[in-house]
Each structure stands twice: as C-alpha cells, then as structure tokens.
Amino acid sequence: MENRTGRYAALTKRLVDSVLATPGHMASDARQAVLARAARLGGRPSSPLSQRERGIGAEDIPPALADYVDKVALHAYTVTDQDLATLKQAGNSDDVLFEATVSAALGAALGRLERGLSALCGEASAPDPLSTLGPHPLTPSPFGRGGTRE
Amino acid sequence: MRLRTVEHGHRLAQRLKLLLIRVVSMRRVPDVVKTLFYRPEFFGRPMCDWTQAVMRGPSPWSVGERELFAAFTSRLNQCLF
User: Fold this and answer.
1) Which domain holds residue B26?
2) Closest of A82, A71, A87 to residue A130, by C-alpha
3) Residue B17 covered by a domain
4) Nearest CB partner across the interface for B50, out of A15, A79, A143
5) Does A19 touch chain B if contact means CB atoms closer than 8 Å?
6) Do B6 and A94 touch (CB under 8 A)?
7) B44 within some domain
8) Domain presence at residue B81
9) Is there a contact between A18 and B36 (Cβ–Cβ < 8 Å)?
10) Where are chain A's structural domains?
C-alpha cells in the first residue's frame, strides 16, 4: 500500500492498518479480502501484489457478503434497508456489517485515489470500472440539490 | 442509521461527546459523526487524523478549494454529505 497514496502515505497506512488489524468481529483476513476486492472495483491500477495480498482470495469473503461489498464499492447510494435486513437474517451481527462496510468503502476510496494519482502522474490506466455499471455518476441525484437530510 | 449498534451502541465517553454536540448544536447528531465515534480505534480516529491533514493541513490549495473538491466528489458519488 505504501507509495501509492501520495503525500499522505503514512496516515493512509495507519488508517488501513487500523481497519484491517484492530481486533474485531470479522476475521482480519476477511477484512483484507473485502478491502482488496473493493479497491479493484474502485479502479486500483494493476500493480504487483504484496505478499499479504497474494495470500488472499475471494474465498475469504463470506459469499453472502460479496454482493453487498460490490454494491458499497460501486454505488453505495443504492444500498437499502432490505440489504442489511437480509444480511442480518443470515447471521451477520451489526459489528460484522459495520466492519465489512468500512473495509469496502475504504478499499473503494483507495482504489479511486490511487487511480487518480496515477492519472496525474501520466500513467495509462484501465477503463473506468464504473463506466459499464449502473447509472452514470452525473445522473440527477434522487435527493435534489444535495446537502444534508434532517 | 441502518445499524442499530452504530446508532446507539457507543461507549460512555463517546456517548457523552454526542450528547454535548446535540445540546450545543441543538440539532440531531449527523450519522457520519455517530459512525466516526463508534469504536473510534477501528476507524474513526485514524480517519479523522487523515481528514484533518488532508483538509486542514499545509497545502497549495485553500481550505475552501479543498471543501469544494470534497463536495463535488460527494455529489458525483450521490452522497448526501
């Protein structure tokens, strides 16, 4: 992860380490798998995998969570109450879902950050992973002009 | 808030801070703050440190410009924030 997030690399590393290594309700390896999957979906430029990443596969993500992780990573605003209710009925605690959501959101954000930094450095990048999926980001917001909902 | 534990499951120190925010602002506490205050050692604390450095630390961009970038990005992500 180092050297891929620009001038704030140390703070970014601390954030990632906290999310992945802090004792929690979801296995650290599963959190790592969720973050790596979301980062790829977010557009992380291809790069040699770290030793830790090489040992992680999709099988480390509980199958019921995989679709939810993809949704958070690609278009989080489409997550519904029903999505969470279904995952809870499948036996996932609130804390597991909290950790999975944070790991997915952080992974997707890092993927986009790294993609943007690569573009600024003039590196060629793969097609935008969002370009063929779901509504375009510039479609009108269902919530009007933005701001906060009270 | 869809996760009940993130809405109501804060430890005493964070509950007191949330109460103080609610009393002083006279508004309900935004969900993003409740999320940052839930188990802060896991996510909220390092995230706030990162955000503080990026949004308020030394930079060739002004604070206002950085806030504009953040608002624009949130808008593209259809994020209410």
Assistant:
1) 4-76
2) A71
3) yes
4) A15
5) yes
6) yes
7) yes
8) no
9) no
10) 6-120
Q: What is the DSSP letter of A4?
A: S
The neighbour count for residue A75, using CB atoms within 10 Å, is 16
**Residue partners of B70: CB distance under 8 A and separation at least 6:** B55
Measured in Å, how far apart are chain A's first and last C-alpha atoms? 37
- How do residues B33-77 score in pLDDT, each as one tens digit? 999 999 999 999 999 999 999 999 999 999 999 999 999 988 988
- 49-88 in A: which are within 8 Å (CB) of B? 75-77, 79, 81, 84
pLDDT in tens, A61-102: 877 799 999 999 999 999 999 999 999 999 999 999 999 999
Nearest residue, CB atoms, B46 vs list A14, A24, A142? A14
pTM of the model as a whole: 0.81
d(CA A114, CA A129): 14
Number of domains in chain B: 1
Half-sphere exposure of A38 (CA within 13 A, CB side): 31
